[in-house]
Amino acid sequence: MPELPEVQAVVDLLDERLAGKAITQGHLVAFSVLKTYTPPLDALLGLEVAGVTRHGKFIDVDAQGLHLVFHLARAGWVTWHDAVPTAVPRPGKTGLALRIGVEDGSGFSLTEAGTQRHLAVYVVEDPMAVPGIAALGPDPLADDFTVEDLAEILSEAGRAQLKGVLRDQKVLAGIGNAYSDEILHAARLSPFKPANSLDADGVAALHGHIRQVLGDALAGTRDVAITKLKDSKRSHMRVHGRAGEVCGVCGSTIAEVSFADSSLQYCPGCQTGGKPLADRRMSKLLK
């Protein structure tokens, strides 16, 4: 799933290439992805793109006050076209969901891999009309996101596990499964550690690691082609997706905890005092 750094990279590319150009075509191929019915998609036609921004993992194309908002979910992605295909797209097995073209003939497509359909598209007059955006927590890379803000979040979370707190979009916007693993590894914290168990120094350290890991990942997306962003993300991970490999920090073997539809990776040596976390439901919360 694309997270804050990759989504921001897509936003930057779309903003650079779309701003100042009028939308001339919009083809909805997978009708299930469109979650709103008014205004209609064709209301965007003829409107000039003012800019493209991000709300957590949501991408917002502002066309003169009308917003095309989309969330890529787990398997969605953006494909840029220097020249949008001229043939009208038809439903099929390609995963194509939506295609947008602008006045110079360029544009982009939204696609979704796999069989599950979670890609979501909205056309709204106000981004806050999108329920997921209205419910978002603060952006962890925002200039005004302070140590005190994080301390309040962790206190309110009580004994909820840090892993779940970090990836809850209503708590912090933009962090998902992969970067929560990376942040906790950098901070040398168990994913199951209670949120409210960190002292003041621990909160400050975690705040620094959140911003460092996300900031480094964001910097790493610069000059990376949109087609290479996913591979670039994987290549820079230290623990996520690396179960069975050797930790580059302490030399321990990276371990994994599996759930019904996801998994987490961590380093026992760095994060849990050498103790394995066999299963979330059976493991004790480690301090």
UniProtKB/TrEMBL annotation:
<dbReference type="GO" id="GO:0034039">
    <property type="term" value="F:8-oxo-7,8-dihydroguanine DNA N-glycosylase activity"/>
</dbReference>
<dbReference type="GO" id="GO:0003684">
    <property type="term" value="F:damaged DNA binding"/>
</dbReference>
<dbReference type="Pfam" id="PF06831">
    <property type="entry name" value="H2TH"/>
</dbReference>
<dbReference type="GO" id="GO:0003906">
    <property type="term" value="F:DNA-(apurinic or apyrimidinic site) endonuclease activity"/>
</dbReference>
<feature type="domain" description="Formamidopyrimidine-DNA glycosylase catalytic">
    <location>
        <begin position="2"/>
        <end position="95"/>
    </location>
</feature>
<dbReference type="InterPro" id="IPR015886">
    <property type="entry name" value="H2TH_FPG"/>
</dbReference>
<dbReference type="Pfam" id="PF01149">
    <property type="entry name" value="Fapy_DNA_glyco"/>
</dbReference>
<keyword id="KW-0326">Glycosidase</keyword>
<keyword id="KW-0479">Metal-binding</keyword>
<keyword id="KW-0862">Zinc</keyword>
<keyword id="KW-0238">DNA-binding</keyword>
<keyword id="KW-0511">Multifunctional enzyme</keyword>
<dbReference type="GO" id="GO:0006284">
    <property type="term" value="P:base-excision repair"/>
</dbReference>
<keyword id="KW-0863">Zinc-finger</keyword>
<dbReference type="GO" id="GO:0008270">
    <property type="term" value="F:zinc ion binding"/>
</dbReference>
<keyword id="KW-0227">DNA damage</keyword>
<comment type="similarity">
    <text>Belongs to the FPG family.</text>
</comment>
<feature type="domain" description="FPG-type">
    <location>
        <begin position="238"/>
        <end position="272"/>
    </location>
</feature>
<dbReference type="InterPro" id="IPR010663">
    <property type="entry name" value="Znf_FPG/IleRS"/>
</dbReference>
<protein>
    <submittedName>
        <fullName>Fpg/Nei family DNA glycosylase</fullName>
    </submittedName>
</protein>
<dbReference type="InterPro" id="IPR010979">
    <property type="entry name" value="Ribosomal_uS13-like_H2TH"/>
</dbReference>
<dbReference type="Pfam" id="PF06827">
    <property type="entry name" value="zf-FPG_IleRS"/>
</dbReference>
<dbReference type="InterPro" id="IPR012319">
    <property type="entry name" value="FPG_cat"/>
</dbReference>
<dbReference type="InterPro" id="IPR035937">
    <property type="entry name" value="FPG_N"/>
</dbReference>
<keyword id="KW-0378">Hydrolase</keyword>
<keyword id="KW-0234">DNA repair</keyword>
<keyword id="KW-0456">Lyase</keyword>
<dbReference type="GO" id="GO:0016829">
    <property type="term" value="F:lyase activity"/>
</dbReference>
<dbReference type="InterPro" id="IPR000214">
    <property type="entry name" value="Znf_DNA_glyclase/AP_lyase"/>
</dbReference>
